[in-house]
Structure formats: C-alpha cells, structure tokens
Write a structure and sequence with these properties.
Protein-arginine rhamnosyltransferase that catalyzes the transfer of a single rhamnose to elongation factor P (EF-P) on 'Lys-32', a modification required for EF-P-dependent rescue of polyproline stalled ribosomes. One of its GO terms (molecular function) is protein-arginine rhamnosyltransferase activity. The protein has 14 helices and 14 strands. By secondary structure, the chain is α/β, with parallel strands linked by helices. It folds into two domains: 167 residues, Rossmann fold; 203 residues, Glycogen Phosphorylase B (Rossmann fold). The structure holds 2'-deoxy-thymidine-beta-L-rhamnose.
Length: 395
C-alpha cells in the first residue's frame, strides 16, 4: 500500500459536480478560494457545470473551459465526460461523494506516493456525524484509501467554512456610518430607519402569498430584498405580477419588495450583513447567515424520503439551546412552517407575528451563536490539520 506524505504546501485538487442548484459549487468554490488565499498550496478545481460556476464567480466567464485558467489563485478546469487526468494533486477532494472518474483513480494509484483522498460530506448537525468524521475506506481494488471529512457544529467534526478575515470584514462593513445606507442607495433602494430589512433567498415557496399579505398589512415597514432565485415565481404570484426581474420594485401596503441581481459570493455576504432577517437555503447560504450573526430562517434542501426533516430538527436542537422558551418556540414554529414540516401545522403567515416579536432576542442569540461557532477551527484549517495528521501517522 502506498503511503501518503503531505508536503509543506501540497497541491490540492477538488472535484465538484453541480447537483440541481449552486450549492455544491458554492461550497467548493468557497473552499478552493479559501485554501488558495491562505497560501497552503496550489489549488485546482474541476467543475462539471461552467454556467453555475460563472454565476457565483463571474470571472470564470473569461476562462477558456478547455484550456482552464486561474481565478483568485485557483486553477479552474472543466470536468467533462472526456476527462483526461493531469498529474494528480497530493490531496484530492471529491465533494459530496461525486465519484472520481476512473481515469483519475488510476492516475492516483499509479503514483509512487498515493495522494490523500478526501470525501467532503454534506453539512449536518446530526449526532452521528462526529462518529463518522475521519473514517477511512480502502478502495476495493486500488492501493488508495478514502477518508470521510464531515463539516459540522462541534469540535468532533470538520467545522464550517469561514475565511480568516470574514468576521473582521463584516464588522468593518457594518461600522462604516454610511455602510448600509450607501449599499442600499447604490441599488436605488430607500427605507426608513425603523424598517425591517429582510433578504429572501429560497426555493419554491407555495406559502409565500399569505406571508406577503401579512407583511403588507404589518404595522412596520418591511423591505424585502429578493435576489433572483427559484422563489421568484412565488414572489410574482404573491404580488400579482406577470414577470419580475432584477431592478424591479413593488410596493404593497407596508411591504416593499425589490428584486436584486444574483451577485458573486462577496456581494451576497453584503446583502446578508445589510438585513435584520435573512431567509437562506441549502448549505452555503445557511452557513453565511450564521456568520452574518442576525436572525435567519433556513429552508433546507428537500429530500425525497423527508430525511431533511430530521436534519432540520437536529440543527434546531443545537441552535435553540440557551434561548428563552417563547423565542425558541417562535423560531422553531416558523422554520417548521417554512419547510412544511409536521407536526406543527401552522403556516408561515400564522407563525409570523410570534417570530416578529421574538426578533430582538433572536438577534442577541444569533451573535452569541456566531461567536461560539467562531471559536472552533474553520473547515479549511481543520481539513489541512486532518491531512497533516494522516501524513504524520503514515510516517
Ligand atoms: O444552491 P443551493 O440550494 O445548494 C444546495 C445545497 O448545497 C444542498 O446541500 C445541495 O444538496 C443542493 O444544493 C443540491 O443553496 P446554497 O448552498 O446556499 O448555495 C447558493 C450559493 O449561491 C451560495 O454559495 C451563495 C451563492 N449566492 C451568490 O453567490 N450570489 C447571490 O446573489 C446569491 C443569492 C447566492
């Protein structure tokens, strides 16, 4: 069996297959740029869908898909069915069990020193994660060993992606007196000092019209910022519009809804920082909302067997710890309603007044949660440490 030995600055090679949305590429692009920025070695990212990459990383449009090219220190390569391996990296990451091409595995096995092969798993707050984090699985035929690396919310897991300067950048952005006002003004958006600013990034949401009705009739000005995403059809339905696009603004009672263009990831962070309540989805925006340290509503990626309900409850069980019962109930009730989960059969519109009342307490809690999570090693650091430990153990 070949043994992995990590050089001081390994070459990282990440494989990403885009499933359904941006999520997988959102996480992989963030990991790749974070590793590159930390100077821990060269980073190559293989992506099967260039269009999805281009949306979160517009600079990818200038890269020749066949020849590859570098953006933010990451070598971008298109992963096609005619895949021909390059010299494999010393650390090869397959994201979310995307299954490396056979030619890549053969190239890895042919090396004198086998690369360290990592399967980066989906984020889950479930208790079993810590037990599986770091497990090894030898390839049945080739002299290769795959290691499972799980992100998570405690020290027994691989942590969460968090760039080294993220929280300082967030605080500096918020501290600038003109920060948010200028950000909104640059997008042609005005709101009163007491408005509740909400970002809405979501999958389809059939319950949205009733919630918009509640917001339109609310006693507080509601500014809802909707980046172009799958929920836009429901926003159109809720506002009785045929077609909405970036730049459109619709006022109904206390509610003003503004459609924003889909930006790069840095721009999306600023949207989260600018709002008092963020609706997020999937995995990466869910984590970014936690670093924004404001109350948020998570729409979990739906799975056919409703396995996502358990994942939602597992996160709620962790997140709600330490909150007074009324605030914890308000948040849990709204999240379950937003995700269509039994047994709490309230609709989001019915669950909204209690959530609105709980926001001040939830705001304090969101900051506390963010601070606690920020004490743990971030995912890129944890991954680097994990690889070094395996290399050390192999000596
Ligand atoms: O795209 P998603 O729905 O991702 C999901 C999850 O990863 C899920 O686990 C997976 O199984 C499924 O895809 C197939 O949501 P997510 O993870 O939040 O990714 C969206 C990315 O888009 C994230 O990196 C933030 C980014 N983004 C921008 O860069 N600009 C924007 O304007 C917006 C709204 C988002």
């Amino acid at each position: 069996m070949h043994r992995f030995r990590s050089p001081a600055r390994p070459r990282w090679e990440i494989f990403c297959q885009v499933v359904d949305n941006f999520g997988d590429i959102g996480v992989c692009w963030r990991l790749a740029t974070d590793l590159a920025r930390r100077g821990g070695g060269a980073v190559r990212l293989w992506v099967d869908e260039w269009e999805a990459l281009r949306r979160i990383c517009p600079a990818a449009a200038a890269v020749d898909e066949r020849a590859g090219g570098s953006v933010q220190g990451v070598e971008l390569r298109r992963w096609t069915s005619a895949f021909v391996p390059l010299v494999p990296g010393e650390i090869v990451v397959e994201a979310f069990a995307c299954e490396l091409p056979a030619a890549q595995l053969e190239a890895m096995a042919a090396l004198r020193q086998a690369p360290l092969w990592i399967n980066l798993e989906y984020l889950s707050a479930e208790a079993w994660v810590a037990g599986c984090h770091g497990m090894a699985s030898p390839h049945p035929r080739l002299p290769l060993v795959k290691h499972f690396f799980f992100p998570g919310f405690d020290a027994g897991t691989g942590g969460l992606l968090r760039e080294a300067d993220l929280l300082a950048r967030r605080d500096a952005w918020r501290a600038r007196p003109e920060g948010r006002a200028a950000w909104l003004a640059a997008r042609g958006i005005a709101s009163g000092p007491d408005a509740l600013r909400v970002s809405l990034f979501a999958y389809e949401q059939p319950e949205l019209p009733a919630l918009f009705d509640a917001w339109a009739g609310s006693g507080r000005e509601m500014l809802v910022l909707v980046p172009e995403s799958r929920v836009l059809g429901d926003v159109q339905r809720a506002l009785g519009r045929e077609r909405l696009q970036a730049g459109d603004r619709v006022v109904r009672g206390a509610l003003t809804a503004c459609v924003l263009p889909f930006t790069d990831q840095a721009g999306y962070d600023e949207l989260l920082w600018a709002c008092e309540l963020n609706f997020v989805r999937g995995e990466d925006s869910f984590v970014r909302a936690q670093w924004a340290a404001r109350p948020f509503v998570w729409q979990i990626y739906p799975q056919a067997d409703a396995a996502h309900h358990d994942k939602l409850e597992a996160f709620l069980a962790r997140y709600l710890q330490g909150l007074p019962a009324a605030e914890a109930d308000a948040l849990a009730r709204f999240w379950r309603a937003w995700n269509g989960c039994a047994p709490d059969r309230a609709t989001p519109a019915e669950a909204w007044p209690a959530l609105a009342a709980a926001l001040p307490g939830l705001d304090v809690h969101a900051r506390r949660w963010c601070d606690v999570q920020a004490e743990l090693p971030d995912l890129a650091t944890a991954l680097d440490t994990f690889c070094s430990h395996i290399a050390h153990a192999a000596r």
